[in-house]
Amino acid sequence: MAKTIGIMLTEGIEAGVVEDNALVGATTHFPENRSETNALVEKPHEDLVELLCDRILDIAQGHSDITAVGLGLPGLVRQGVVEEAPNLPQLKGAKIQQAVSFALHERGFDTNVKTINDADAMAAGLAAQFGKLDRMIRVWTLGRGIGYGRYPFIDGVWEGGHMVVTLDDKERYCGCGGRGHLEGIMGHRAMRMRFLDLEPEEVFEMAKKGDERCLQFKKLWHKALAAATASSIHMTGPGKFYLTGTNTRYIDLPMLENYVHQMVTMSPLQSFSIEVVKDSTGTAVRGAGIVAGM
Questions:
Q1: What pLDDT score does 157 carry?
Q2: Rounded to whole angstroms, how far apart are CA atoms 282 and 288?
Q3: Contact (CB, 8 A) for 248 and 218
Q4: Cβ proximity of 229 and 241 under 8 Å
């Protein structure tokens, strides 16, 4: 099997070697202190390209048979171009695949570079982890934003976090400025904007204690994800949905499944299942490496 490098650019840069659809050894992370979640936000995209190349070359040492690099990125990524990146706005419009390939060539490392949305990379990694590379799976990543990943991949925009789940004119908390978006309800940033007096973890803790305002929001939060999931089922059919990311800690799975069942009533579409899985950047690195080898 081909040996590839998977690399993820999110709040930091995580990279590793992938062979036979599995990680070879441990991944590396930049910055070393994982609590530094804003280390990349203010860096110009040229500096990010150099950082990516540094990580790739560091990982490649001792592996002379690397055949490709898979690069996972947040935002709308198509044909090697970052068309939109709300969480890393300096990447908007960047021809990232071409830039990384050229920079690596300048350093004497010629290899094929493929780009992919970070949630799609997570989907590929989970498909490998659970032995589902021969079937369709979908993934919701719940964190600072909301990602939607699908494996196997098909052409499309797939910005599921910006799916419209409410017509309420007041729902304008999404970072893109759009009204009624899933991310505007579920995203970490959006929750902090909505509850200026409470952190998201406090909101869900108070909901457990019966606080009416927080309990109503917990229901809205789950209904929003149910609506987006139901829309996906109605468009592309039933199947397996995985939930991952730091904010899966707030998931009440029975509540979510109940709402989805209320929204999906056609019997041929009811053979779906939802599973919460542990958040792991290494899984997405694995997925990015798998995509690179395709």
A1: 85
A2: 10
A3: no
A4: yes
